[in-house]
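Annex B. Sample input.
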Amino acid sequence: MRVLIAGESWMTHSIHVKGFDSFTTSSYHEGVGPLRKALQATGHPVTYLPNHRAADEFPLSAADLGAFDVVILSDIGVNTLLLPDRTFSASERTANRLVLLRDYVKGGGGLLMMGGYLTFQGIDGKAGYHGTPVEEVLPVILQSSDDRVESPEGVVPEIVGPSHPILQQLSGWPHFLGYNRAQLKPGAQLLAKVGQDPFIAVMECGKGRSAIFASDCGPHWGPSAFLAWEGYQPLWDRLVRWLGRAL
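Annex B, continued. Sample output.
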């Protein structure tokens, strides 16, 4: 499957105060490594657009988006997709990429939304996917406000669809430190949950398919135990192949 991953990057600007004096430091980080490595190891070509590049380089046409079998959105908010520089700075009209994603799925593409502080509805509601065309093709109804469930004690998802090809023979699930809360849509299939909240859900949508994984693909909600889990690579491989109708 030809996979496009958008998001999974951040910049940190810190202020250090030492008595009378202070100074600042800046750093750049990417969290895509384990996911990208897992997909590439199972034969999937991966194109990665970190947030600062996705704003201008994420596909702006159905033809360019159609070059990919599966699109993964992970910790990337709607504003990054809606406001390329040519629109925000130069006031040029550009395609609505949320509409493009909806139509991409209905036309036969696969879409996976990962949990995080800037997907689903996100921290302080800033991810902003509730009420958008992207929500129309997700297997869940998003909350209208901050939907994070912080679980510092650790929560282990309960598998409710073990016979689904995505989850077959995946056992020994590790704990997670949080996830995004949502509500399962009628017609969607629940594969795993935490309490009554969907953790993994999938849906047929037009000619395409969609899925959600309500926690992180890596730190911080996904701890080292998740990255070291023997099911980590098979999980992403199967999710991508199911979304691309190869499973």
